[in-house]
Amino acid sequence: MSNAALGADYAQAVERLAGRVLGALRGTQVPLPAVSDADRPADTTALAAVRVMGPDLFAPALFRRQPLPQPDRDTLDTALRVFPPRPGDSVEARWRDRTTAALLARGAAGAHPASPYAGGEPYAGEDSERAALAEAAGIAGIAGIVEDAEDTELTWQERSQRMARLAPLALPEVDGPYQQRACLHVRALSRGATRSLMRRDHPTAARLVRWLALAQSRGASPALDVPTVLDHLRLWGAPSTRTALDLAIARRLLAATEGGPR
Amino acid sequence: MSVQTTPALSPVRAGVAERAALTALVDEPEAPFSDAPVYSPQGTGVLLLLALLSPKTPKESRPS
Q1: Is the pLDDT of residue A117 over 60?
Q2: CA A134 – CA A112 distance, rounded (Å)
Q3: CA A223 to CA A239: how far, in whole Å?
Q4: Chain center to CA of A193
Q5: Considering all CA atoms of chain A, what is the largest pairwise distance in Å, rounded to the nearest integer?
Q6: Which of residues 238-257 of A touch B (CB under 8 A)?
Q7: Which helix H or strand E contains A118, and what residues bound it?
Q8: Could you say which residues of chain B have pLDDT below 50?
Q9: Which of A70, A138, B26, B53 has the highest count of CB atoms within 10 angstroms of its CB?
Q10: Which residues pair with A78 in a beta bridge?
């Protein structure tokens, strides 16, 4: 299979999985895809979709304040084994993996003891990929401090681009340096969201509005009216299921601000 | 979300092509933010030509 065809397959799998997560967020019970059985090898395409979605898979459970079911944790664990984090991954990919690993480690008391990832502690060994996951799951070390230092000089355009790629980190019950920066730099993110709307880059606008909704839910004051922007994007129609998921999560974050049920 | 339980197998690591396809999706580049549109006087001639080439309004046919 050519690389382009493989990428297209993975993209379609991501859209299908995003639809399942969106359904779970809205109240229907939909499972993650079955990983493997005794008769066929692991579905790599489905696992790739699980890896791409990353922290977004936890959204329905986080809004309900419930742990991710064990079978879903096993699926994520297998996806991390098949597509392990690597030291050469981008900053945004490492932070998404770090958040995924941290969420997996939460409530891991009942997790499968053989799983190196769900328990939050990888096996002792010299495997560089396990070391990368250990860095992802651990408290920000030297690399994290360096990243934080580089982040202070970003323009609003650069900050908006980075935060758009990190939109899966905008979740309830999740905190960290980027969640704090979203609250601190609401004006920059508001500019980025406004510019995306003017350029009709609705996927990027949805990701930035998701951050603004999180910031507003934590007491910040965005420079634009977030509910109105959400209505505007809803009326335009989401170009993809992932964008629809971003909008749904943003709306639930705002609902939490208003004191309603998540 | 619940998922059907499956027998545990040792998963096979993704190959290079699979890894590259995944990385392209994870690091999907955002559309770069453009500067404000700049006035282009050369575009005026193109607009005038398009106006001249635009279809004429149909003439009303007189009843015989």
Answers
A1: no
A2: 18
A3: 25
A4: 18
A5: 55
A6: none
A7: none
A8: 1-8
A9: B26
A10: none
Q: Average pLDDT in the A20-34 region?
A: 75
Q: What residues contact A158, with CB distance under 8 A and at least 6 apart?
A: none
Query: Is the Cβ–Cβ distance between A76 and A99 less than 8 Å?
Result: no
Query: Which residues from chain B sit within 8 angstroms of residue A48, using beta carbons?
Result: 14, 18, 21-22, 25
Query: Of B16, B26, B19, whose CA–CA distance to A97 is shortest?
Result: B26
Q: Do B2 and A31 touch (CB under 8 A)?
A: yes
**pLDDT in the model for residue A30:** 61
Task: Report yes or no: A213 and A253 within 8 Å, Cβ to Cβ.
Answer: yes
- In this prediction, residue A110 has a pLDDT band, given cuts at 50, 70 and 90, of very low
The distance of A147 to chain B (nearest Cα, Å) reads: 17
Decide if the complex's ipTM is over 0.85: no
Can you tell me the distance from the alpha carbon of A145 to that of A5, in angstroms, rounded to the nearest whole number?
39
Which among A159, A220, A43, A246 has a CA at the least distance from the CA of B18?
Answer: A43
Q: What integer pLDDT is reported at residue B64 of this predicted model?
A: 54
- A residues 142-201 lying closer than 8 A (beta carbon) to B: 157, 160-161, 164-165, 192, 195, 199, 201
- pLDDT value for A72: 84
Domain locations in chain A as residue ranges: 1-138, 143-262
pLDDT score of A139: 37
- pLDDT tens digit string along A71-94? 888 888 888 888 998 888 888 899
Long-range contacts of A141-150 (CB under 8 A, 24+ apart): A144/A177, A147/A91, A148/A177
Q: Give the dihedral of Cα atoms A171, A238, A46, A52; nearest 10 deg.
A: -50
Helix or strand holding residue B15 (H, E) = none
Q: In chain B, which ranges are continuous DSSP H helix?
A: 16-26, 42-53
Q: Given this model, what pLDDT does residue A109 score?
A: 45
